[in-house]
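Check out a protein:
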Amino acid sequence: MAGVKVPTEKENRATLAADSVVIGIIVGFRNDSVPRVSFPGCPSEQGISARTTVSFARSDIGKQVALLFESGDLKKPLIIGKILVPEPVVFEPRPAPQAVQTTLDGESLTLTADREIVLCCGKASITLTRAGKIIIRGAYLLNRSSGVNKIKGASVQIN
């Protein structure tokens, strides 16, 4: 095959690198914070400066990045993203609910819960349960009305 040049292995690797996404490594930064990358077929052992679409920190040195090349030129790498290593997901139990303080305008207040709502102050408490129970506890209970004071129920027990 006269006149046909067979590409060398190095040229094949360079062509492949220029035509596809290449995984490289951040090897450092220039003084103006421009990242330097190294990749298979890199023309420099110290890495070359790269343009980027993402921001980096010094802690990214040694991390893998996805590279493309402007106009297929291996001397013009473009970092298109960081290669993320998935971390195992750890499911932790829900933290205990924390107390919430709220200041209201005095018009209306609605508290909603799936299981129960408890209001506490010292030795006194009012509990509302999902089953419809209202439990009032305290060292001293006073029930006072300026109008009729009605007690209704399927049965009423006093003492």
In short: The longest helix spans residues 9-19. The longest strand covers residues 22-29. The mean pLDDT is 81.
